[in-house]
Amino acid sequence: MNMKNRLILQFISLLLVASFISIGFVTVAFSFMHAKINELEMSRDFTRAGLSNLVTTLRLENGNITFDPDMLAQVKKSGGWLQTIDENGMVTSSYLTPPDVPNHYRPGEIHAIWNGEKQFPYSLYIWIEPKDGVTYTLLYGVTYKEAELLKQISKAATLQSGSVAIPASLEQELLQSNMWLQLLDANGTEIASLLKPPNALNHYSVQELTLRIQYPARYQERIFTTYDDQTKQTWILHAPATASGTTTSLFSLSSEGQIAGVTIVVLLIAIITVFLLLSLWYGHRFGTPMLHLLEWLNQIAKGTYKEPQDRNGLPKSLTKSGHYKRNYRIYQEVMFSMHHLVACLQRNNEIRNQLEKTREEWIAGVSHDLKTPLSSILGYSKMLENKNYEWTPEEIRDFGSTMSEKSTYMDALINDLSMTYRLKNGAYSLTFTSQDINELVRRSIISFLNHPQFQEASLTFRPALPTIHYPVDSYAFQRMVDNVIANAILHNPVGTPIEICLLACETDDPNVEGFTLTIRDGGTGMNPEVAHQLFERYYRGTNTDRLTQGTGLGMAIAKELALAHGGEIQVASELGKGTSIAFTFQKEKDLLPSYHLKNLFTHSN
């Protein structure tokens, strides 16, 4: 998997994790809010929310009905009691049932109690609901102390100038329970009140009073009434929304809005916290490698190529076992590229330093090579200029011969320098004509064998059969061959066998033609460093103590001439076993060679 796909996968994974966590928080928050609102509703009026939950949570175990303990606690808090009856009216289970409650009900009896046709000391509520194929009937009874209190007040109250006068004990009970009292006439208009808060209504329509009685949560109060049929007056007792003997538990919140508000705020805080934590983790996971790379690049800019390390001296991106750390694996292609870049920079730096060193050495050598013949020429010219001494014709001829020899050497050195840079910059023009390559190589070998300086050279030529005709610049090609053969003779012991082999290239493409010229010696060989620098203009493979001949530019010129002919060069050398230099030239038929832009050299031991 490449870096792009890994990053996409990481982004998607992070979004999925954040989404699942958010959904989980929302689910928990709404479940919690629903439970608390349900609890609040049961605390206000257990008959509206509690009875259905009782049926939902009941279980039948070994023929016995059991209820959820939390629901039974709500029954106790509401001040009520509970019974379940079967189809025959027999009580099958009960909870906190008072002694004066029957354990068997006739069919018409329950209906009469429910409609108020039969006197019953408790308010009775009935809930019938099927569950798992069984129909359950719940009876919930409760005594509202507020209703009993209102009956006592209506009997003991007297009117005094628009105010209700009641016994001190009853008034104290109203104060303790945060309740207040109103008396309405037949039209619903207030006649008198007690402990009435500001902004309370003074008149009630039939609809208004009915709604307030039926929906206590909406109006944040519970209303109990008693009607005097003789006077047509209505007594109203206003009580807090929370049922008698119960309290709310969610930080004393007493409304659905407060519960929802607090839940949403907590939910938002939780989600923001999670996103902050995920952002910190995300920043650490993706940012740390980026900061590491920036630090590394900054060090590279300062010339330090080593990867930044931790306190233990290990690269920050690697474990002790040498593998990439988890957060660095995403950028492993970048890390590979950085290591490759560092290796190239280090290698280039070494090459640059080596080139600078060899450049200085070569300049020093060339300066020495120029000063030596110049010194000879200058010395002889001074001697000839001296009027105090008469030179013989023979001495003058010796002086002239030496000066001519030194001048010729200097001219060759300057020409080689000029040719090297012209070839390097493409300013040296070649004329390509079809030549017999066997013949060109043979001429070069014969010229060496006939030269007095190289009479002891051991040269063997293996021509190509049949002969090869290839478009080359005859002078430039022979110069290339001469330089390589001369290098093999001069830098090996006298008599070292040197083999020159010419072989036609075999290719699968019939439109491609070419040949390979290999110059192989059995001499001292070279180490990898010398072999790598063999064709550099500023490099001599010998030390300063050893006598060297030539200008030191022969191999550099040979390389540029080979490239100008579209050739490639391969070098194989081993210390003590000799060196092999192979020139390969290929082109399409009927086309002239083109400058080979690839500078391909290989070295093998």
Number of strands: 19
Radius of gyration: 56 Å
Task: Report the top-level CATH class of the largest domain.
Answer: Alpha Beta
Q: What is the overall pLDDT average?
A: 82
Describe this structure in words.
- The chain is of the alpha+beta class and 605 residues long.
- The protein folds into four domains: 3-43 and 255-299; 45-143, no CATH class; 146-240; 429-588, Heat Shock Protein 90.
- α1 packs across α2 (46-57) and α2 (46-57) runs antiparallel to α3 (69-77).
- The chain has helices at 3-44, 46-57, 69-77, 107-115, 145-156, 168-176, 206-214, 216-219, 256-301, 332-385, 393-424, 437-450, 474-490, 528-532, 554-564; strands at 59-61, 64-66, 80-85, 91-95, 123-131, 134-142, 158-160, 163-165, 180-184, 190-194, 221-228, 233-240, 433-436, 458-462, 469-472, 497-504, 512-521, 567-574, 578-588.
- A five-stranded mixed sheet has the order 14-16-17-19-18. A four-stranded antiparallel sheet has the order 4-3-6-5, covered by helices on one side. Strands 10-9-12-11 form a four-stranded antiparallel sheet.
- It contains 15 helices and 19 strands.
- The longest helix has 54 residues, at 332-385.
- β18 and β19 (578-588) form a beta hairpin.
Descriptive terms for the model:
4-stranded antiparallel beta sheet; 47% helix; 5-stranded mixed beta sheet; rod-shaped; alpha+beta; 4 domains; 19 strands; 15 helices; disordered C terminus; ATP-binding; 605 residues
